[in-house]
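Below: protein 1.
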Amino acid sequence: MSARVSCKNVVMGFVLAFVIALFAPATRAHAVSVDFDSSWVGESAFLNVIPGQTFQFQVFFMNTGQATWRRGTSTQVNLTVCLENKVSCNLPSPHAAWNDGTWVSDRAYATHAQAEVFPSDIAAFTYRIKVPVTATSGTYRFNGDLALTSGQQLHPEGYYQEAVIGGDSGN
């Protein structure tokens, strides 16, 4: 009987551990800090584009941290440029020629549209591209991620959108 009770206790322990893991709050293992964290929510469709014309991308992130993002302060959050590896960010854009003049800088596409983004609010990041008249057929990927104005990434996720010349974007 004692072997049976031990086995029952072990099984109950596994069930209890599983239930705790299932309902425990999500951890912030990848976040820079509990104050500044984010989560990708959605984006506009990828685009079929034409050289010489201007197009718009939009992406949405939730402020899952504890601090409010405020434009014009050190807590401003930007959609920064990343390289294809989606790890090297806040660098000059490999597609700088596509900047229609409205990007935040050569290292950031946009900042949040709202003056303040409170915790649990969703922020819109909108930026435009102007396809160079010399651009050839192909798929052009605009990699990015969120970072404070200091360049410190919030929650590296590897966001990107694509512009396709002369083909099907898949949408």
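Below: protein 2.
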Amino acid sequence: MDVTRNVTTAAAYFPARKSLPALREASTACKACPLWKTGTQTVFGEGTSRARAMLVGEQPGNEEDLSGKPFVGPAGQLLDRALQAAGIDRADAYVTNVVKHFKWEPQGKRRLHKRPNQGEINACLPWLEAEVAAVKPEVLVCLGATAAQALLGRGFKVSQQRGQVVSSPLAPVTLATVHPSSILRAREAEDRHREMQLLIEDLKVVARLLADARRAQRS
């Protein structure tokens, strides 16, 4: 996760002690990129430092921006259902995003998601690096192309490599799947059902990996 040189990054706001509570508190003052000006607040990750799986999305959405919590909107609720169907205890998962502020553009009274650019991603990556270091997840899951390409390289294609275990220094096991918001955008109910099942199958891979790791620890 190389940060582009000559770009102000979140590392300038790091606390001396890099525990999750200290990082979360420090992140509230982050102005490493211009998104702090339009976001309501920083949306840091959520979960225990003992979480065995870390799931990383792109950025908070409208509901997350207002509540200050990640994955609480429609996409987050869909993710919760998929995790449950895959047999993953939500308490075993730490959820976060590559970018910690909501990037949006107005459409009438609505605030529509706008994809973060590379400079914004680079500026924010140190927060995610610190979260990974604090949690030390056994399995890291990238949700969607932005997260996958930020962490696994610009050439990574979720459409071709989803559900496949890939080599990464971030965690013992790393893989990518679609972001749950992509399922919500599907127009037909049949398409949404099919994509939901595929997401569940990818998360079942995560569940099996966690089970294998636990058995190995006990043996």
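The first strand starts at residue 53 and ends at 57.
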